[in-house]
Every structure is written in C-alpha cells, then in structure tokens.
Amino acid sequence: MTDTAEKKYTSDELKAMLAEQEKLEAIESYTGVSIERIEALPELTELQRKEFLVKLRSRTQFKEEKGAKINENITKLQINAGKKAKIRPCEIVATICGIDGITKDDIGIIQIVDTASFVEILNGKGNQVLKGIQSKTIKGKTRKVFRARREH
C-alpha cells in the first residue's frame, strides 16, 4: 500500500500534494538537478497534541525589563534652550558640574534639539540638579528648567 492509502488524505490534501509534485518535477526539468525528497515528520500523538495545547494556552511569564532598575535613578530634565540659542553640550555640563555635589559622572545623555535640550541626570541626583540649576546661567542667561516628559 502507498502512504496515501494508509493515512486517508482528503481530496484537497491530495490535490495540494499532486500540485507540489508537479512543481518539483517542473523545477527539476528546468534546472536539470534532481531534488532529494525526504519523508514528512510523523504526525503528533494525541498525548503530544494535548501537551502542546496546554503549553500554548498557558500564560507566558514575562521577565522584568533589564533596564527597569537602571532607569529608576535617572531623571530627565528639559532646558528651554537648544540649537537656535547655540547651546552646546559642554556648556550644559559645565553649568551642571558647577552645582555642589554633582560631578560629570552624574550626567547622562544630552540631547539638543532646535528649541530645547534634554539632559539625563543619573544616580538619583535629579532633584538636586533641578533646584541648583534654577539659579545658574547657561550661556549668560538663566533658562527655564523642568522635568521632561518621558517621550523624549
């Protein structure tokens, strides 16, 4: 007996198998290379099928985001001065480092856009920098500084 008689395929499955066989033969005749045929994997047993469905329906447990603990101590500040005011990162760093208790290691990423600058303050010193920078000048002017929204 052939494989098709043992497994009892539906007519649609038989049509698909025949079409696939014809395509393979067409490819072989076009390329002149014989394509090795392998047998399909045996069908799943009922027990394997049940185990798969249980695993599929079980709720996945997501791992804690790797950067979540790191981001706890980061405060992002927005300074209302950017490229149009010709602000450079070194001027922002110099101003922030002028605050007592703040070093260059407490300053993270500085992003300068047209009308604003965004500075990440590390090590939980965001409030200290926010209070201290209000009285400092950047490029000769006092600038409005506040906590940035998280989208930036």
List the helices and strands and how they pair.
Blueprint: H1 3-7, H2 11-31, H3 46-57, H4 68-72, E1 75-79, H5 89-97, E2 107-112, E3 117-121, H6 126-133, E4 137-138, E5 141-142, E6 145-147
Antiparallel strand pairs: 1-3, 1-6, 2-3, 4-5
Could you write a compact summary of the structure shown?
With 152 residues, the protein is of the alpha+beta class. The protein has six helices and six strands.
Measure the end-to-end span.
68 Å
The CATH superfamily name of the largest domain is: RRM (RNA recognition motif) domain
CA-based shape: elongated
| Total domain units | 2
**What order do the helices and strands follow?**
HHHHEHEEHEEE
Q: Look at the helices and sheets and give the structural class.
A: alpha+beta
CATH architecture of the largest domain: 2-Layer Sandwich
Overview of the molecule:
A four-stranded antiparallel sheet has the order 2-3-1-6, with helices on one face. The protein has a two-stranded antiparallel ribbon with strand order 4-5. The chain has helices at 3-7, 11-31, 46-57, 68-72, 89-97, 126-133; strands at residues 75-79, 107-112, 117-121, 137-138, 141-142, 145-147. Mean pLDDT is 84; it is low at 1-5. It has two domains: 3-57, no CATH class; 68-147, RRM (RNA recognition motif) domain (Alpha-Beta Plaits), CATH 3.30.70. It is an alpha+beta fold and 152 residues long. β2 and β3 (117-121) form a beta hairpin.
Summary tags:
single chain, about 150 residues, alpha+beta, Alpha-Beta Plaits, four-stranded antiparallel beta sheet, two-stranded antiparallel sheet, 6 strands, elongated, disordered N terminus
